[in-house]
Amino acid sequence: MIDGTRVLLVRRGAEPLKGEWSIPGGMLELGEELPAAVVRELREETGLDVEPLDVIAVFDRIERDGRSKPKYHYVIVDYVCRKLGGRLAPSSDVEDARWVEFRQLRRYHLTAKANEVIREAFRHRSGKRR
Fold it and tell me: Which of 12, 81, 7, 100 is nearest to 40 (CA)?
């Protein structure tokens, strides 16, 4: 989620990426539609109420064990969202949640894919989508 020149980040409290900074999100519940999952996960992880606007990225994340066997395989669908309300407070399976200025993102050692998605979210916000 983008707010002016800031992006919302969370520090993961569980695998995959435990202890790493990332974009908020989580897993679907059985029978749950994607936009409803976005609303639920953001509320659970950050305390914020959002409205999903558009899909900005779809990709696979495959984590492998030491023998190259898949350990996790996620299909990730990233939405750009609008904040409707709530108060930022980390909970659920995150250790921390904060608004980070775009120019300070390097300090958070995000994955290349997370950086790419964030740049696309800023382009979307400015009307300059690819």
Answer: 81
